[in-house]
Write a structure and sequence with these properties.
about 625 residues, alpha/beta, Rossmann fold, 3 domains, 6-stranded parallel sheet, 19 strands, about 40% helix, about 15% strand, binds flavin mononucleotide
């Protein structure tokens, strides 16, 4: 048996209580190993996998405004995030056996022991089971306080002895104690007005999904009709198809009838400008499509690969995603899930629907200043499809058929994946990927690495895109370089994160947005670190984006990162084997790194809005950019 005593302290009181508990547990017998762990070093993954025979005791202090001490800040925010993450099963801690001792001063009134109480409630909410009553002590009552500590330590020792002596006793004890923990929780909810109880949350899902950012379709359907317990049971019983793995029949996928887009989600997405197709797909017009239609510049894909933004259709065949990235500008309103559990529309219908809806949006630009008849005609003749709009395109069970259909229509495909589905085919290391992409899969790092391995085998163009989030991943050069050596991509796009004027769910601020110069510096060091097979090739300063390319694309000293699209389509039609080197085209000089035009196509006209200009004062500059963004959003 392994017991962990996890403590958080600011001034030492709590640590000494934890040490006292460790000593008392040590006297129970030599069949238990007891760890004393500062909460700062707690491994949350390990907590999620903890077995019932290995209980955890938390001894936690309370600090300013009832919040955690410094050492517990990260754990506190992780736990809260996890507790309210709508993708996480409410039973995910059902194997955890725990008890909390809170240290605080009742003189602080309603914030007395607030943090330990929150931890206690969140662990219970996720089905963690108290093996003995959680207790909240008042250091203001010094005489009584010591007695309360001793009583709690005694009951911890007793419960551990009970576990050691036999499982039956444990379950009855647990049943009794979980009831009393529910009563305690009621008490706590009264104390903390901001706290949303699980019942309220259920109501929110039922009554106010339109406004809710927590738009989990699975939960929505289940909670609406049967309530939490039954929903859980249904989830467990579900035989929903994950994704169409090799060998899974099409009819198995076709037999699922639940639709991904519910009426409320439809309203919500339409409000955001998505044109929805069928039951799980959508198109939306990108700002660069509009810009290039008006001859005002294209996106970085134009500079790097020759993709014409005004002929590019941004599409997704799956609005659902398996990550909740901090940089996601969709503000997490899209559904999230690790499995395909919805009705799957036919690929022909999605491709045709997307073309029709995209053209209807282009049509609205007829006569708009700057849109010439020639550009308009080109815009109607879609040449590219960027599968990077929102969601995870490869979750869609017929993604291969979908991409083939695009190619048949002479539409090139550019597919962006978050590398969580290696069976079908953002950060440098495991910790960083977890913080930034906030994946739902517990084996997210293994999945990510398998995808990287798969990419190394591809003969068509492969690209790594690194989104630099200052403070999160900008310091991880070595790990990135390693991933690149492993995945051997043709290209590495490095892009500074975009601030989307939103500070809620994803908690990014302007201080996380790197300057273009910082991105350039990062890229220079990264390129030198990878190997001498790679070099910086292109720059698109407008979007803080840089391209590092494999040197095989530098033919006779000249970069060939662009694509010869007619050649690509004729190779596809030929049915013969070909590789990415068979359809290369010369990169124009203006797109090459080091050119004064910094990636802006000289055939277009740059239109400067009355925007913030850098005047040497970073803080003032950031404040101006923020004001610009907020003004634009109004
Ligand atoms: C700056 C400060 C703020 C505090 N705020 C609270 C509070 O909001 N609620 C509470 O219950 N206790 C509060 N306390 C009391 C502490 O929890 C108490 O002093 C405790 O014994 C500290 O434990 P430690 O020595 O392990 O850090 C506060 C203490 C300090 C010094």
């Amino acid at each position: 048996m392994r017991v962990s005593v996890v403590f958080s302290t600011q001034e030492g009181t709590t640590e000494s209580i934890a040490e006292k508990l460790v000593a008392a547990l040590g006297r129970v017998g030599n069949t238990i190993a007891v760890d004393l762990v500062n909460i700062k070093a707690i491994d949350n993954d390990e907590l999620l996998k903890r077995k019932p025979a290995d209980p955890v005791f938390f001894v936690l202090t309370t600090y300013v405004d009832g919040g955690p001490a410094d050492d517990a800040a990260w754990f506190g925010s992780w736990l809260e995030d996890y507790r309210y993450d709508f993708r996480v099963s409410k039973a995910s801690l059902s194997d955890l056996r725990f008890s909390v001792f809170g240290v605080g001063d009742a003189a602080y009134g309603s914030s007395w022991c607030l943090f330990p109480k929150k931890v206690d409630a969140f662990l219970s909410d996720m089905a963690g089971v108290k093996i003995c009553e959680s207790i909240f002590g008042d250091v203001g009552e010094r005489m009584e306080f010591d007695g309360v500590v001793d009583a709690w330590i005694n009951s911890c020792v007793q419960s551990v002895s009970t576990i050691l002596s036999g499982a039956d006793l444990v379950s009855s004890n647990i049943a009794k104690l979980s009831m009393s923990s529910l009563e305690k929780q009621d008490e706590f909810e009264e104390l903390n007005d901001d706290y949303v109880s699980s019942d309220e949350e259920e109501d929110e899902f039922v009554d106010a999904p339109e406004e809710s950012k927590l738009m989990d379709l699975e939960d929505l359907g289940a909670f609406a009709s049967v309530g939490l317990k039954k929903a859980k049971q249904e989830q467990d019983d579900s035989t929903g198809i994950v994704i169409r793995k090799k060998g899974t029949s099409v009819s198995a996928v076709a037999s699922i009838t639940r639709e991904m887009i519910t009426p409320n989600l439809r309203k919500n997405l339409e409000k955001q400008g998505y044109k929805l197709i069928g039951t799980h797909s959508g198109v939306k017009m990108c700002r660069w499509t509009k810009a290039q239609l008006r001859n005002r510049g294209g996106c970085y894909k134009h500079t790097f690969y020759g993709i014409e933004s005004h002929r590019c259709m941004e599409t997704t065949p799956s609005l659902a995603c398996a990550n909740k990235c901090v940089f996601c500008w969709r503000h997490q309103t899209n559904p999230v899930g690790v499995e395909w559990r919805w009705k799957a529309d036919a690929p022909e219908d999605i491709v045709n629907g997307a073309i029709e809806k995209h053209r209807a949006m282009i049509n609205q630009f007829k006569g708009v200043p700057g849109v010439t008849a020639e550009r308009f005609k080109e815009g109607m003749d879609i040449a590219h499809c960027a599968l990077s709009l929102v969601g995870e395109p490869i979750m869609y069970p017929y993604i291969n058929e979908f991409v083939d259909l695009l190619h048949q229509k002479n539409i090139s495909s550019f597919l962006v994946t978050n590398s969580q589905f290696p069976e079908l085919i953002h950060a440098g290391n495991k910790e960083s990927l977890k913080k930034i992409d906030r994946p739902l899969f517990s084996d997210f790092w293994e999945r990510f690495n398998s995808c990287v391995d798969e990419l190394a085998k591809k003969e068509q163009r492969t690209v790594f895109r690194l989104t630099l989030v200052k403070g999160f991943n900008i310091t991880e050069l070595k790990s990135y370089a390693e991933l690149v050596r492993k995945g051997k991509p043709d290209f590495i796009e490095v892009k500074g994160v975009t601030f989307c004027g939103y500070t809620g769910e994803n908690s990014l601020t302007m201080s996380n947005v790197p300057f273009h110069e910082e991105v350039v510096e990062f890229v220079k060091i990264l390129a030198a670190d990878i190997s001498d097979e790679y070099e910086i090739s292109c720059e698109h300063a407008h979007t803080c984006s840089m391209l590092i390319s494999h040197k095989k694309y530098k033919i006779d000293g000249v970069w060939h990162t662009w694509i010869d699209y007619p050649k690509f389509h004729s190779l596809v039609r030929s049915g013969e084997h070909f590789t990415s080197m068979d359809y290369v085209a010369k990169t124009p000089d203006w797109a090459v790194f080091g050119d004064d035009r910094k990636g802006f196509d000289p055939d277009m006209t740059r239109v400067y809005k009355n925007k913030a200009k850098y005047d040497g004062n970073p803080e003032a500059y950031k404040a101006k950019i923020k004001a610009d963004i907020l003004a634009a959003a109004e």
